[in-house]
Structure prediction request, 387 residues.
Amino acid sequence: MNTGKTLFAQLMDYLPWTTFTRIVDRYSGDHRARTLSCGEQYRAMAFAQLTYRESLRDIEACLSVQASKLYHMGFRQPVRRSTLADANESRDWRIHAELAQRLISQARKLYADEDLDLSNTVYALDSTTIALCLSVFPWARFRAAKAAVKMHTLLNLRGNIPSFIHISDGKLHDVHALDMLMPEAGAIYVVDRAYVDFARLHVLHRAGAFFVTRAKSNMDIHRVYSAVTDRATGIICDQTISLDGFYTSRDYPEHLRRIRFKDPETGKTLVFITNNFALPAATICALYKSRWQVELFFKWIKQHLRIKQFYGTSENAVKTQIWIAVSVYVLVAIVKKRLDLEAPLYTLLQILSITLFEKMPLHQALTLGETKSENIETNNQLNLFTF
Prediction:
């Protein structure tokens, strides 16, 4: 007796399948595919991400146990690990990259009204290195005895939605990610010292964008003007500066703003540079502190999605898995917003990981899990010291 859709099928309904079909046709993804279509490949890999499967054998075993529900989850026939491995090896990873970008575009619109205390769009740019075994992934050579890929991410701090992702080999320096961006006028880009390249920063400036970063200790400058500051707030100085180095002054001939800040919590002194002269100095310091959100994003996605253990060893298989992981993250973020859920993404993923085969309304399952977690009474806990 059919009592409704599984939670997995309901979650997959939020994907733009018509758009996905057009992307698949563009890359001939289903050409000569007799058993496992690109849509089924995505569903199988998304299932693996949501339920934390360890291997292709693990995926096959878990899906085969629920054989009676596979058709209603979007699978025409049982998923075989050899077929899924072949699909990950041969199907173009750009199919899933484009799908992820479409989902990111949807999520940005949904989270555009998130409160950030600023009218500007604020982005944090950083990268994370995913270590690999050189003997298994020889195409990703990073150092003499190590392999790695690097994920460069531009995170929109309204909702912590990735706006740009580029997957490269581990050797590509972070600063080259600036060359891949399309600067948005009026937006603020928060970056660390690895991105201090004045020629590239001047490109952002000429495009009408702003940047906030930390100054390098050997930066050759002279002070043009000093504004009055309140040292009680931790702002030691707020200066207008000009670059004196031969190359730096040529690459960035405009004035910059330099702010020295002493963190009252740690006692550390930090020096920031920016091309934004309008915002208060305290806001500039707070913006750089918000850059930590991109570090939390990397930590979160490594812990709760499968991008450290890979189901395939080729470059295509690795990129396919990373892009599907990103799309699953964004898909859950879209569902969270559309269903107006208060629970964090971590909680939603934990609920989904053990309820995907259940047949009940998606909103009810996610809200019920949220309510139960909030109503747990501490007096029901076992007391080890009660005899």
Summary: The CA atoms of residues 304 and 346 lie 8 Å apart. Residues 7-95+310-370 form one domain.
